[in-house]
Predict the 3D structure of the following.
Amino acid sequence: MPIRLILGASRGIGHELARQYAAQGDRVLATYRHEADGPGLAALGVEALRVDLLQDDCEAVLAGALKGALVDTALIVAGVGGPQASEVIAPTREEFDAVMRTNVFVSMRLIPFLAAGRLARGAKLAVLSSRMGSIGGASSASWWLYRASKAALNSVLKSASLALASQDIVCLSLHPGWVRTDMGGAGADLGVEESAASLLRVVAATNRSHNGRFLNYNGEQLEW
């Protein structure tokens, strides 16, 4: 039975990814942060793990849950939007730290943890990025802190793809589309179910030739 690890599954896309993987009969381990989110996640038939991915005990919690099992697919979904300024306005230190720690530090911490013998050979390791992190494709200055964090996340993923290629790990940066979540808003193009289903298809279809790529939810390669 394939093992899927969803890091950041309290709600939104992460929650739906966990649901869809569980529905197809896979073993799913999914993390949540707040106690109130646990029952709904567990009701999906997944192994719900309460862990704050920013805290020092997160690796121990994850290692204990895996108990030596090797993960076939790991998706780092945790992320925050931060200030939505449409102009170039300096963030506060608290805003900067909150966005960068969640959107960048979590992956820089968990990728090495997973790479240290916790991924099956040929596993898929993906981060949930955003098209807004594309420097080459940028056409607006809005959400500039969020954009900077996702550009940094893309750099982290690219570096990981080079470091883990010898382990036959396929590292991917994924854009989920503009999705109707708390962050995306009610006017977004895609429902959570459609976005998650598309992402699962893209991840399943990738192979070693896709290592280190930035992919749209429809499989299109995006510009860094």
Remarks:
- Residues 125 and 171 are 5 Å apart (CA to CA).
- The mean pLDDT is 95.
- The first helix runs from residue 12 to 23.
